[in-house]
């Protein structure tokens, strides 16, 4: 049976590269993004290379949207084996201009977007005693700060705590949770 991999923010950058890699390894990839044209282009690239993929629009700020995407994937394919929680933003904002709204917007996508996608997939993964979650942090969240990106660094540090907590909580159910903290990636 083919592995089903759901990737958030898969239209560009690291998400796109992950989608191509998972497809090349034989997974059916569910490409999700707010960037529909970019997401559809990734699906086209995967299918042109002989892989299997589909696009589903998803804004990870929406609990209802995440619940609906997970439910649709599970209804169509019977499972989700792997989630790559990659969706994220990084906007340069000096601290004096950093509003509560910009802070919350960054956390809503970079941190809360992870658990919004993972949470509805857990019942199926737990029932199968199998699953994998890979959450994207950043070197800016684990090793050092980033000038005029304090909100980004804080959110990505939060991803580390989320990954650690989920890894301990879900291990007994056979679900692996790992974090990746890349350095600068030109995307």
Strand content: 15-25%
What structural category characterises the helix and strand content? alpha/beta
Shape: globular
Q: Span between N and C termini?
A: 33 Å
Low-pLDDT sequence parts: none
Order of helices and strands: EHEHEHEHHEHHE
**Count of individual beta strands:** 6
Q: Helix count, per DSSP?
A: 7
Write down the overall mean pLDDT: 97
Which value, in Å, is the CA radius of gyration? 16 Å
Largest sheet, spatial ordering of strands? 3-2-1-4-5-6
Biggest β-sheet description: 6 strands, parallel
As a percent range, the share of helical residues equals 40-55%
Compile the SSE list and pairings.
Elements (H helix, E strand, L loop, with lengths): L3 E4 L5 H12 L3 E6 L2 H13 L3 E6 L5 H15 L4 E4 L14 H11 L1 H17 L2 E6 L2 H4 L7 H22 L3 E6 L7
Parallel strand pairs: 1-2, 1-4, 2-3, 4-5, 5-6
Helix pairs in contact: 1-2, 3-5, 4-7
